[in-house]
Amino acid sequence: MLNKFLHKLSDLTHIHHRAAFSDIPDRLPTRESTFRAIAKERYSCRAFKSTPLTEFQINHILEAARLAPSAVNKQPVHVWVVKSAEALEKLKGATEYTYGAPAVFMVGCRYEDAWVRKYDGKNGAEIDAAIVGTHIMLEASALGLGNVWVGSFDPAKIKADFPETEGYEIVCLFPVGVPDAGPSPRHSQRKDLEDFSSVL
């Protein structure tokens, strides 16, 4: 008798799940998320057309950067948009890797404003800046713009030529613009998932 009751209960539960459509994700074919599509298509662009960025594009990229998470929401990061001919020329004195982009987003952090891990004193400012930078890259890609993460630059030269950055450590630069080159042959080379990750 008890077994019959449990069997009927199981049937009723199954019917309820079907009625509530709770099992739809298990029955529908999976499809790639929008985010994963952007992450897959994005590449490091090293040649740009001279087409200026629009205010719409710049503001959308900055807003995506502003929304980036930071440790304890300290937000110890600032972004400068280098886009005037004079400013871009000055920036070339600090790095040869602007690739002719019409705009370069400079990301800096201030250590004294950041969260510090109590166990070992690790400061999270540069990590927060890296997260902001990732948002810049992915939003630019979502807008159809080429971009590249540049870490090779002379920070002392930037500080000297851009006094607006005083008090901040420049972490990364992002040339952004209409792409004039495709991805390199190495772009699609990725470790296999089993080599890249472990489930514990």
* Number of DSSP E strands: 4
Fold-level CATH name of the largest domain:
NADH Oxidase
SS content category: alpha+beta
Spatial arrangement of strands, main beta sheet: 1-2-4-3
- Low-confidence residue ranges: none
Number of helices: 8
Describe this entry's structure for a reader:
The model has no long low-confidence stretch (mean pLDDT 91). This protein folds into two domains: 1-30; 43-177, NADH Oxidase (3-Layer(aba) Sandwich). The chain has 200 residues and is an alpha+beta fold. The longest helix is centred in the first third of the chain and has 18 residues, at 2-19. The chain is globular, with a radius of gyration of 24 Å. It has helices spanning 2-19, 24-27, 34-41, 55-66, 85-91, 125-142, 155-161, 193-196; strands spanning 77-82, 103-109, 146-147, 169-177. It contains eight helices and four strands, in the order H-H-H-H-E-H-E-H-E-H-E-H. Strands 1-2-4-3 form a four-stranded antiparallel beta sheet.
Outline of the structure:
By secondary structure, the protein is of the alpha+beta class. The protein is 39% helix and 12% strand.
Write the layout of secondary structure elements.
Elements: H1 2-19, H2 24-27, H3 34-41, H4 55-66, E1 77-82, H5 85-91, E2 103-109, H6 125-142, E3 146-147, H7 155-161, E4 169-177, H8 193-196
Antiparallel strand pairs: 1-2, 2-4, 3-4
Helix pairs in contact: 4-6
